[in-house]
Amino acid sequence: MNFSPRQLFRIAAVAEAFTWLGLLVGMYLKYVTETTQAGVWLFGRLHGGLFVVYLAAALWVARAERWGWWRTLFALGASVPPLATVVFDRWLARRDPERPTAAATAG
Asked: Exposed, middle or buried, 16 (CB in 10 Å: 0-12/13-18/19+)?
């Protein structure tokens, strides 16, 4: 499997958003219903790791595609609000579609 920086960015954005959602559900179960801490324990760890992966992927694709400072800052900032990474990724796909790589056009 040979993924482009943009494809890895998209995967990281979606995965980070799902773990954010899982963490929010876990916090609801822990603090509102006071039934379990398992969701926070599991999704806290997953989200922490994928948060770092998303930031690295954003910096990688920003460098590979020569993004300006504003686009890069918005990509990094999208990691803070829940599900904003998916919103940013969709905006990016509409605004600047991924160009085919040399490997994709070779055959």
From this structure: buried
